[in-house]
């Protein structure tokens, strides 16, 4: 087997050194399995053949016009990103617990934290979270700990899966509808699940008045190249998959967590900090780990250990390529494509655009059930928007959406609606 | 100062800014905004072009050590070879370029892959209920304990508030129990290194308030918990469930099924046993496998096979589920890599994985237990062996010094100062993908460190590492005056 370098000769010598006759002598304490109903090993060619056939059974976003978003976005990823993240030194290294051997990863995390704080307008950001939904749930837990209160208000249209994860983490009975002095935080998503961007100043005042924290959730991180930074928030968390990471059927993606300086010691997850080495040179280390599970055990701020390191690297490379100008341009471009799509759809008889404002996705009202529409579009090979309740559908455009894609959708929908 | 193949690399923001950026776009039309918000003016991101950025990250990469460089015997982390085939397959357009909310009929290949992976994990663990969604080991622990909590809830056992856990456990175990609102009762294993029927019984009491126990097996001392099946029986009689931390599954894979020693729930680290890359700290993937008695309470969604094809379950399909623990379907890209690895090895290859991993660890133990103190050196270890600095400490050389001297010799240190139950612990996990040549070199270096120590060279050892891009770093300063982002 190609991944196993020990020879029979090696094994014999090693067994001799250990002082046993057979390998099974090492497994004497175990209840050994009698056998497994599993196929034998296969060569690279055979496995590749099987997997390629499996992959071919999926209809991909590049096979046909595609209009899904809703928390996972199809953006262009520059070739440089995948080239960098596949370098052995990044791909096959461990969490940088030995900083002398991991300055590369550590500096990347430090730069990632800088990108995130600048983008969100927060003071500090951690090295990443599993995904947007779990990051949001952890934010709620921290707000509960900070305030000593047990209720959370979901202030607007939060992504339904984020809500479900939040319910699992804190318990359904901890979610309240009343913004009063018993609540730990208000969670607001922007753009919200239906695509509408929100301002925060008024809500922040309200939160301050009742002593609650303001948690802002971002699921489309590109939007922050065009929309104002949520500087009023106490915590900004969410999903950064849009920069550098493929959709990959839902993961691995990139949760992020950023907050005000005063909550630093309550943050979950890893943090990288600047310091100096024995020669006085600048270097980086994982720091403030007294918050973390391997030190604090049951008193830790979270149980998170492994996070999304390589995805944070992909983000950092893509973010570096975009830079100040590129992110703004990309965000504007997304908005323009969505405006073009909205305008084209609004001209179809029977279709109404619901949103007054949006970034790169919005809700349309169709004359018939949106699930039926989705099926009819699929018959024409088009992956339409996300069916919502009744006749509504959430449609998304990004820089990847071409004029031809829009023309195809309009022509298909015109047929469906008439 | 730069010298041959060792470059100083500033932060992105410290480079001289270029015009524009490293991506070319079509021009904007500058139509009026429909965002309802003023356009953002400044972000604070750098301005560089593609060649500068490539050099930046390539130079940074050269300051990292990785599995592909050399020996990486990090205990309980299973730093095995990461096959490149896995990477290639995960990048196939049909896997990388699909959206998690696509209609199920358009992603039958992806669902079939998940279904196959569920079956492989079920067969290997003997625990046939499998949910793939947890994102990493600690997340799997959370999923497992929430599954147990839900089972107790629906069976009128909500009063059970205690989780039993040995003092040798990973820090994630107590942290997870606390997140689930459980109270921890510690099983003391300081003397034995293992959970015994005796110390287990002492912790269990009458068991009426015990929800379950969390045990890593093989445990973090590198030992198989031989009495655990008996403990599990007692636990089950008292109405509790047995959660097994699967971090050390590499010792068992293809050899023994956790179900056969009484496990009810177990998470599997795909990024350990099944070779998906650690990526400098993730992404991981921590599917959980459960016995039939807990199947109904697993998180959603699992993949099921129906007459109409493969399908993702919803909470309506299985209302007894505790709910959802992650957005979408889990770390799908890791599922692709893990199944690719499993198929490459097959059942026969996986058995050899466990055998070679365990043999290599025992071989290292046999060669080093003379020069170093091995607290359980009289026993057979599993896929990792435990040494301490007890002998060297008398000469002023600690576990930390040994680690830093390994670094100076181009070897990644073992896990240090863990498990906490042993002072100055060094937990060594060679994995099955290292050649005897590499293992012998490690033994040679360790013998040398022992000899230099006994020769009174402690002062020289304290200087290590000398040749790395940075020498020992001031961690106290980093924590006392936190600088967590670039100053622009």
Q: Would you write up a description of this structure?
A:
The complex is a heterodimer of chains A (418) and B (488). With 418 residues, chain A is of the alpha/beta class. The longest helix of chain A has 38 residues, at 309-346. Chain A folds into 2 domains: 81-317, 3-Layer(aba) Sandwich (Aspartate Aminotransferase, domain 2); 324-417, Aspartate Aminotransferase, domain 1. Chain A has helices spanning 8-18, 44-56, 79-85, 88-91, 103-120, 132-147, 160-170, 201-210, 293-296, 309-346, 370-379, 403-417; strands spanning 124-125, 151-154, 175-176, 183-189, 213-218, 235-239, 255-259, 271-276, 282-287, 352-353, 361-365, 386-387, 392-396. Chain A contains 12 helices and 13 strands. Helices cover 38% and strands 14% of the residues of chain A. Chain B has 488 residues and is of the alpha/beta class. Chain B contains 14 helices and 12 strands. Chain B has a 7-stranded mixed sheet, with helices on both faces. A 3-stranded antiparallel sheet of chain B has the order 10-12-11, covered by helices on one side. In chain B, a hairpin with an 8-residue loop joins β11 (415-416) and β12 (425-428). The radius of gyration of chain B is 25 Å and the shape is globular. Chains A and B meet through α1, α2, α3, α4 and α5 of A and α1, α2, α3, α4 and α5 of B.
Characterize the biggest β-sheet of chain A: 7 strands, mixed
The amount of beta strand of chain B, in percent, is 5-15%
Which radius of gyration of chain B do the C-alpha atoms yield? 25 Å
General form of chain B: globular
The CATH class label of the largest domain in chain B is Alpha Beta
The two chains with the largest interface, and their residue counts, are: A-B, 194 and 190 residues
Query: Which homologous superfamily in CATH is the superfamily of the largest domain in chain B?
Result: Type I PLP-dependent aspartate aminotransferase-like (Major domain)
Order of helices and strands of chain B: HHHHEHEHEHEHEEEEEHEHHEEHHH
CATH-level-2 architecture of the largest domain in chain B: 3-Layer(aba) Sandwich
Mean pLDDT of chain A: 96
Q: What is the count of DSSP helices of chain A, taking H or I runs of 4+ residues?
A: 12
- The helix/strand series of chain A, from N terminus to C terminus, equals HHHHHEHEHEEHEEEEEHHEEHEEH
Uncertain spans of chain B, ≥5 residues at pLDDT below 50? none
Overall pLDDT level of chain B: 96
* Second rung of CATH, namely the architecture of the largest domain in chain A: 3-Layer(aba) Sandwich
CATH superfamily of the largest domain in chain A: Type I PLP-dependent aspartate aminotransferase-like (Major domain)
Helical amount of chain B = 25-40%
């Amino acid at each position: 087997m190609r991944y196993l370098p020990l020879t029979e000769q090696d094994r014999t010598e090693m067994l001799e050194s250990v002082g046993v006759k057979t390998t099974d002598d090492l497994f004497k304490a175990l209840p050994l399995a009698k056998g497994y109903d599993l196929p034998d090993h296969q060569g690279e060619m055979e496995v590749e053949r099987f997997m390629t056939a499996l992959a071919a059974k999926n209809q991909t976003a590049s096979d046909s016009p595609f209009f899904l978003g809703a928390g996972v976005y199809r953006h262009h990823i520059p070739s440089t990103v995948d080239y960098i993240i596949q370098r052995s030194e990044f791909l096959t290294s461990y969490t940088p617990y030995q900083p002398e051997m991991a300055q590369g990863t550590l500096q990347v995390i430090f730069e990632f934290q800088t990108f995130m704080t600048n983008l969100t307008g927060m003071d500090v950001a951690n090295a990443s979270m599993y995904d947007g939904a779990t990051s949001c749930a952890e934010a709620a837990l921290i707000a509960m700990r900070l305030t000593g209160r047990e209720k959370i208000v979901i202030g607007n249209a939060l992504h339904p899966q984020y809500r479900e994860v939040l319910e699992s983490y804190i318990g359904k009975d901890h979610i309240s509808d009343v913004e009063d002095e018993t609540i730990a935080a208000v969670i607001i998503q922007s753009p919200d699940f239906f695509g509408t961007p929100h301002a925060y100043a008024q809500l922040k005042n309200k939160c301050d008045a009742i002593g609650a924290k303001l948690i802002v959730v971002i699921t489309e991180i590109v939007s922050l190249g065009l929309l104002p930074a949520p500087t009023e928030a106490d915590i900004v968390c969410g999903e950064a998959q849009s920069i550098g990471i493929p959709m990959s059927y839902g993961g691995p993606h990139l949760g992020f967590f950023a907050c005000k300086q005063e909550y630093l010691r309550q943050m979950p997850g890893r943090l990288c900090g600047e310091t100096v080495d024995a020669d006085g040179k600048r270097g980086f280390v994982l720091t403030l780990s007294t918050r973390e599970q391997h030190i604090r055990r049951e008193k830790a701020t979270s149980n998170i250990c492994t996070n999304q390191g390589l995805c944070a690297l992909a983000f950092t490379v893509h973010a570096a390529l975009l830079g100040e100008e590129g992110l703004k341009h990309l965000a504007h471009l997304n908005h323009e494509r969505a405006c073009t799509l909205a305008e084209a759809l609004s001209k179809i008889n029977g279709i109404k655009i619901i949103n007054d404002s949006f970034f790169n996705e919005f809700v349309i009202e169709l004359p018939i059930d949106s699930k039926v529409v989705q099926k009819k579009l699929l018959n024409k090979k088009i992956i339409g928007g996300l069916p919502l309740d009744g006749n509504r559908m959430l449609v998304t455009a990004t820089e990847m959406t071409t004029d031809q894609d829009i023309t195809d959708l309009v022509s298909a929908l015109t047929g469906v609606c008439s | 100062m730069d010298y041959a193949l060792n470059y100083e690399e500033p932060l992105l923001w410290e480079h001289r800014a270029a015009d524009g950026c490293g991506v070319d776009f079509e021009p904007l039309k500058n139509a009026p905004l429909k965002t309802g918000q003023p356009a953002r003016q400044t972000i604070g991101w750098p301005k560089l072009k593609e060649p500068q950025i490539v050099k930046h990250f390539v130079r940074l990469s050269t300051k990292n050590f990785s599995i592909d460089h050399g020996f990486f015997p990090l205990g309980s982390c299973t730093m095995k070879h990461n096959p490149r085939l896995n990477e290639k397959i995960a990048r196939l357009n049909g896997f990388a370029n699909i959206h998690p909310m696509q209609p199920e009929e358009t992603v039958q290949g992806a669902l079939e892959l998940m279904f196959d992976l569920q079956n492989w994990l079920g067969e290997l663990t003997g625990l046939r209920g499998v949910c793939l969604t947890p994102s990493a080991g600690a997340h799997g622990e959370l999923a497992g304990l929430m599954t147990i909590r839900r089972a107790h809830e629906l069976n009128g056992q909500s009063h059970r508030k205690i989780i039993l856990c040995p003092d040798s456990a990973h820090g994630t175990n107590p942290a997870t129990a606390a997140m689930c609102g459980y109270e921890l009762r510690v099983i003391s294993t300081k003397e034995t290194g293992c959970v015994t029927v005796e110390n287990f019984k002492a912790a269990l009491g009458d068991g009426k308030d015990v929800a379950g126990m969390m045990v890593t097996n093989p445990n973090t001392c590198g030992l198989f918990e031989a009495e655990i099946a008996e403990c599990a029986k007692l636990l089950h009689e008292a109405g509790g469930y047995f959660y097994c931390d699967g971090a050390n599954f590499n010792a068992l894979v293809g050899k023994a099924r956790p179900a056969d020693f009484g496990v009810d729930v177990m998470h599997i680290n795909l990024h350990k046993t099944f070779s998906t890359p650690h990526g400098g700290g993730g992404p991981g993937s921590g599917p959980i496998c459960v016995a039939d008695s807990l199947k109904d309470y697993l998180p959603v969604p699992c993949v099921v096979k129906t007459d109409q094809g493969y399908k993702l379950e919803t909470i309506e399909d299985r209302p007894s589920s505790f709910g959802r623990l992650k957005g979408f379907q889990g770390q799908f890209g890791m599922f692709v890599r893990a199944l690719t690895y499993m198929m490459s090895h097959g059942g026969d290859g996986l058995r050899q994985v466990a055998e070679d991993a365990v043999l290599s660890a025992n071989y290292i133990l046999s060669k080093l237990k003379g020069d170093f103190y091995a607290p359980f050196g009289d026993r057979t270890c599993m896929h990792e062996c435990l040494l301490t600095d007890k002998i060297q400490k008398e000469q002023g050389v600690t576990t930390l010094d040994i680690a830093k001297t390994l670094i100076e010799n181009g070897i990644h240190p073992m896990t240090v100062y863990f498990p906490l139950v042993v002072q100055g612990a060094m937990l060594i996990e060679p994995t099955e993908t290292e050649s005897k040549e590499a293992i012998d070199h490690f033994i040679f270096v360790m013998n040398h460190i022992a000899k230099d120590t006994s020769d009174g060279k402690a002062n020289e050892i304290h200087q290590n590492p000398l040749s790395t891009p940075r020498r020992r770093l001031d961690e106290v300063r980093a924590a006392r005056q936190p600088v967590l982002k670039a100053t622009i």
